[in-house]
What we know:
alpha/beta, Rossmann fold, 2 domains, four-stranded parallel β-sheet, 14 helices, 34% helix, binds pyridoxal-5'-phosphate, binds zinc ion
Amino acid sequence: MTTISQQPIPAPLDGAPATTPGVLDFGPARGLVCRECGAEFELGAAYSCAECFGPLEVKYDFGAVSRERIEAGPLSLWRYSDLLPVPSNAANKLNLAPGCTKLIKADNLARELGMRSLWIKDDSGNPTHSFKDRVVAVAQAAARELGLGTLSCASTGNLAHAVAAAAARGGMKSVVIVPQDLEDGKIVSAAAYGGVLLAIEGNYDAVNRLCSELIGEELTADWGFVNVNLRPYYAEGSKTVGYEIAEQLGWRLPQQVVVPVASGALLVKVDKAWRELVATGLVESTDYRVFGAQATGCSPVAQAFEAGHDVVRPVKPDTIAKSLAIGNPADGPYALDVVRRTGGSFGSVSDEEIVEGIHLLARTEGVFAETAGGVVIATLQQQLASGTIDPDQETVILNTGDGLKTLDAIIGQVGPTATIPPDVAAVREALA
Ligand SMILES: *Cc1c(COP(=O)(O)O)cnc(C)c1O
Ligand SMILES: [Zn+2]
């Protein structure tokens, strides 16, 4: 297996001066552009188009990028700074330095599923055990550049954990806002860092609405909501999953990828990352198909795909896959575009199938995934059964979070094989 080369991580330069005082440095980023009407805006804490209210995304002018420059970079997502909206010295500012997670050759699982070549991109290996550390790192760099001192977010759990930890490490304040009904593991892990955690009486969509209302209030003048007013930067952090997969495969793209979908940003950005690698000449252009995975209890994008709709009708989530429980996904329509353009598909799976998926992955590969990983495994099985995923094509699946944070989902379904007295006869009997 090709691994990311082991380069020393540069020592943090505490108190390193801002690049040039008063001049914003977002590396290769040149502005924000509306994804709907194409109107362009200056880089700043903006996320919706002043003309049409469409979502904004970062526009770039990529300079000199090369495999050599990336390979010589730090062993974190900052090795891709030439392709991100961050100053080139972002790695040197105090941060959690996430990324460079393992790409595991999953031969046992492949054998079990009758597949030829299967890889797991295991993002549970990030500092706070989910892929959210990537998006937060890029949003945190943007917050610093914009002079914002408080990191905030609307979260289904993992993001709150990532924001609270990144703020603590970076010497910033944090205010994270979550629905009150999250798993204990998610609430406790987010609260452990000493920032403010607000549990809201309502679901994620209510939390998200509240955050939109808070923006513009005097109270939040110093706050960067990583997934609201810093969303264009935040979302770009997801691209690093795509970059790493390509680099770890030896600078090439797989033929199929299965991505869990909450807001849809991760799916959209994996595709964007691969198109950028092709456009900048870092990888050869080869065909790939993108598959989206949702829980049936919150599957607005999968339903729209099934029905052939371009709009995503909001749903009320009811699933154990709480990290994916976004009923009104911001990037839903763009995720549909990517899946349709590449010839992929969407699957949705039941809570029982999710739990079975978690077991299957743990049993075959020794990877204990959170519910989102169970959604991906079950969707892979479903799409293999229906023939949409080809077992002979090289496939990468994403595990985006750690099972230790969603123990609630499987407590009661797994436990001791037997509870016995400490004697040999009892062991023999228990194993009989
Ligand atoms: C946030 C999250 C995702 C996907 O997020 P998007 O909003 O679709 O970008 C996937 N898995 C886990 C565990 C997450 O926390
Ligand atoms: Zn617009």
